Amino acid sequence: MFKEIIKIFFVFFIITLSLKADDYKDAMLKAISKLNKIEDNDRSGIMKLRGDFERILQLKKNNWMVYYYMAYCDLLMSQTYMNEKPDKENIKKYTESAMELLNKATDLKDDFAEAYILKISVNSNRWQYEPEKMNDILTKGQEADDLAKKYGANNPRYYLVNGIITYFTPESFGGGVDKALPTFEKSWSLFESHIPEDETYPNWGKEQTAGMLALCYAKLGKYEDSEKWLEKSLEIKPDSGFIKNFISKEIQKAKSK
User: Fold this and answer.
1) Do the domains spanning 1-143 and 154-257 agree at the CATH topology level?
2) Considering the domain 1-143 in this protein, what is its CATH number?
């Protein structure tokens, strides 16, 4: 009798775990689907979505993937404050929150390439509010870059993030359009064959890569190529705020010069 009770308890325990796993995956896929559709400047929507991921932690505590997506939401929030008059206080607030969450993610999974890639981007935010800490920003950026490349050398987001940083780095410091273009081309070629490890892994960035290629070609005066890449970016994500509110406007500025 005792053995039978143990068997029943064991079966119930396995079923409970299985249901929790299904609930976790369903919740993650719903939240990721919303994330893929969110407007870049929709602060209330981003914060609501961050709350969705935070609640998922109740289904799977200390989960490195959930920490990653919460950090990504924080990064998106920080970017909403980067305009002609950057709000340094809020950029710092969300940057520090994102980095704290990414550190939790890599503490739990130290070979998680996506987290190190995001760290590169998050760390670069610091130029907005503490440029006097140049040495530390460069050191932390290189540390994240080394680990991102070690664990994700063929990850298209690694090249996208580095391409963006290179694009906005002055030519006198080794950056600029000419240096960034091959990096975006590499990112695109990898996106063409990239398959996430599973449905819950990050899949953002392809339209951003196409958009940055469009912008690079416009800056180089190659307007036909620019138009081709702009169309590609909007095919991937027609309602992308990044493409409509930034890339398209920057292309028009380039053409008017």
Assistant:
1) yes
2) 1.25.40
Q: Render pLDDT for 140-178 as a digit per residue (tens, 0 to 9).
A: 999 999 999 999 999 999 999 999 999 999 999 999 999
Q: What is the pLDDT of residue 21?
A: 54
CA atoms of 20 and 14, how far apart (whole Å): 10
What residues does each domain of the chain span?
1-143, 154-257
In sign, the C-alpha dihedral spanning 62, 29, 207, 149 is positive
Which residues of the chain fall short of a pLDDT of 50?
1-3, 5, 7-20
Q: Which residue has the tokens 């029943």?
A: 8
Tell which CATH architecture fits domain 154-257. Answer: Alpha Horseshoe (1.25)
| Residue type at position 251 | I
What token pair was written down for 95?
């940057």
Query: What's the CA gap between 234 and 208, in Å, rounded?
Result: 10
